[in-house]
Specification:
The chain is built from three helices and five strands. With 141 residues, it is of the alpha/beta class.
């Protein structure tokens, strides 16, 4: 007697991919329409209107508070070094003494960016409304 072996042809399992692109497209649309994107508010500035000739505004030295940040991130109030943690209370005290105080924040061009934001936040938290921004350029550049 002859033994006949049956050879089974195994079919490979296959995942149908014909509608995969449609499903991916629908998922993208779903997530885009239902997701709330966080908007960073950034810094609000009221910029002056552009004029042909710049006007020079003179501010009395008693009404000017200069905050300088050097390239190492050290903070100075009118050439006096101050701890950044005490900056808000110091600005608040000076604003209470002089309501006409204009604050000028000057940052060295190589200063850490985070320190400028920290100083600006302290001025804002202290109630500073009249704020100017400037850059301290490196000598020879």
């Amino acid at each position: 007697m002859a033994i006949i072996k049956r050879v089974k042809m195994e079919e490979e399992a296959e995942i149908p991919t014909a509608s995969m692109a449609d499903i991916a497209f629908l998922l993208i649309i779903f997530f885009m329409t239902t997701t709330n994107f966080a908007r960073e508010k950034g810094l609000k500035f009221l910029l002056p209107e552009k004029k042909d000739q710049p006007q020079e505004i003179k501010i009395a030295s008693k009404n000017l508070l200069k905050i300088s940040i050097n390239d190492r991130g050290e903070v100075f109030l009118n050439d006096e070094q101050v701890n950044p943690n005490n900056l808000e209370s110091e600005i608040k005290r000076r604003l209470e003494e002089n309501s006409k105080l204009v604050i000028l924040i000057r940052t060295h061009e190589n200063a850490p960016y985070g320190m400028m934001i920290r100083v600006f936040d302290a001025v804002k938290a202290a109630g500073g409304k009249k704020v100017g921004l400037g850059v301290i350029k490196e000598e020879g550049s």
